[in-house]
Amino acid sequence: MNNQINSFYWTLFLISVATLAIEGVLLRLFTFVVGYHFVSLIVSLALLGYGAAGSLAFSIPDRVKQKIPWLFAGAAIILALGFSLLPLDGYQFWVFPLNWLYFIVLLVLAFFPFFFHGLYQLYCFELFPALFPRFYGLNLIGSAGGTALGFVILFLLPEIKAIIILSLLPFFAVLFTKEKILTFLLIIGGLILLFLPLDIYLSPYSPSQTILQDPSNKLLFSFRHPAQILQVFDTPHTRVATGVSVNFEQAPPTSWTLVWDHHQEELFPQDPSSAFIQNTLFFFPFQLISPQTVLILESKGGLETYCSAFSQTDEALYLISSPLFERFLEKSFPSFPTEVKISFPRKFLAQTENRYQLITAQVPVGPGEIFPGAFSLEENYLFTQEGIRQAFSRLEEEGYLALYLFLQQPPSVLPKVLKLLEFALEEEIALEQNLLILKALNFSLVLLKKSPLTLSEIEQATKLAKDYQFDWIYYPGIQEETAENIFQTGKIYYQAVQSLLKSSADPKNYPFNLKPPQDNSPYFSNFFTWSQLQETWTNLGKRWLPFGGAGFLLVIFTLVVIVLLAVLFILLPSRKNHPSIKKSGATLIAGASIGAGYMFLEIPLIVKLKLTLGYPLTSFLLVLGVLLTFSGLGSLRVNKALSPAFPRRMAVCHPLSLIGYFIFLEIGKDWLLLLSAYLNFAIALAPLALVAYFSGMPLAYLSQIIRRTNPAHFPQVFAWNGFFSVISSLLAHLLSVFIGISTAYFLAVLLYCGYWLGMNFYSGENSCRTRGTNRTSPKL
Question: Strand 435-440 and strand 339-342: pairing?
């Protein structure tokens, strides 16, 4: 018997490791599909699988459950092949509805590994109900190990082949069972697939594919990191002309084309002349103020570095967060003209004591990206009120902050930048007295001085702009007739700026979301408002961008599909397969509360900790790893915690730990940014261990209550837990975007508090019934 139990322990552990490693890889794969880290989608797919397992567990015969390790491997291999073979084209998503089917098929394929993982957990519960907290704890610890493995394996293998290798992991537990032939065939099949040229299917219109349609272009380098892919193309006929003056009559310099994660494209000049650099908006602040100390933040186009070199700046620092970009510079420039440092902007700004005469940054929105329906889930902690204040504090008293941006029609990015500056610096400066805004065609420079501009500085700036024929949008005292004269754009940008600066116009009256981002909702690139829905629908499929540029409709489409799949695989089977089971509304609500509460905890923490932990994948895997490890330990504790006082104690301790951790992150974030990476990880995540420990107890505690009263009811509770987890993961993400991380997080506090209070009442009531039954039972 002990050998049998140990076999189940070992198999569950390995399936848990493989499943969570696959979840980390899926985060990267769906990044390539949808264009950004859609973390809540991956979590909801996982929970969909677990919830479906709970609903369907009773209807699946034992002979199928005994084959779960082999079914898991087959499902994972088919998933990998799906990403490689299904011709999902995001650029034609709304034009050809067949792409909807491909997307739905991918979602269904992605849910099956999690389904078999959840089914195996329930199979263990059926066989050994008294040992379930131990199985559940071991499962969570194995899952935590899987998050680490998912990160490590992406160092070694591309995503498709990583899934194939992970699919074979559970076979280490079943090598010597009766199914040797099936095991051998799957292992041989997986190894054969490893040597085939399998890679994710990419739209022929994605940047990394369209570039190679010109035979003169070629791929020079491809750099990989678990959280990023950088491809460097030699594109001799592609020219860099961003922000160039009409005075420059020569051909712009040729460029390399850098493609990040197959979708984000950036041009990097190969050998620009000083004449070209001096005729760009990038050079304007260098020429205006002749800075001797310059900090360049996250410029993937690199023109500012040439500006600092040609202006003979004494000290210039080029700060980038990507180690892959540093490798590109090392390979392409034996002696790069500017010192390069790898660090995240907020972390560096918190750590440095230096003051700079000029700090530059480029707004993270490309040309022609913003129109009704445009939406992004990409966090950016530099372009928040707190980030701007931090950058501004690193300027000398006469220093300047230079923000470069692509203009959109109608105006959207420029007004949002101005509202961000206004809200961030309202206690420090009067914006209209410190501001210069110029443009060249569709590119603009926002130049903000720390102290008020003097008349002589304004005159010098207007003369310089006239010499290079840059258009003025704003300077203190500007008249309408002097604005936007070179490129005739109807003075729309001048009018937008005047409206915002002079009349304090309400951003809610604009057709775009101009709400200044904060660390509580760090989504600068989110310009969506509900009033855009009609126009978004009217123009659906008419823009040649991934998913037609209608990112929000993709999110809604995904939410609808996930909810329908959850109803189909979770709710309907749970009603059909348990007709004879005595239902308990209290335990169903408890299961739902646990599922929703865990998601309203997990998703906001992944987003919030990206500020201190770095990349989205790093934050995802580290937070998930800590939550799963210590939730597992918490569930193991439950066997010793079935006293009547336990729910009352937890109704106080659990919510207090959640509130305390959030306050710690909020008050201590500036201090955490001062620490080195590994110390930061340790200190930021150590208190999370207590939160996770308490958060692992509710489901294990509920399982033991149900085991004593109605064991056959547990799969249905498990199903409700999964259903509400699926919905809550996406809702928690949307709440974080539109309202704030704190709102989503404190919903978790309320849900867990309500759960423990309900369990206190429910367990007490059942205890009274049991005692009453015992007193009135006839003696035999």
Answer: unpaired
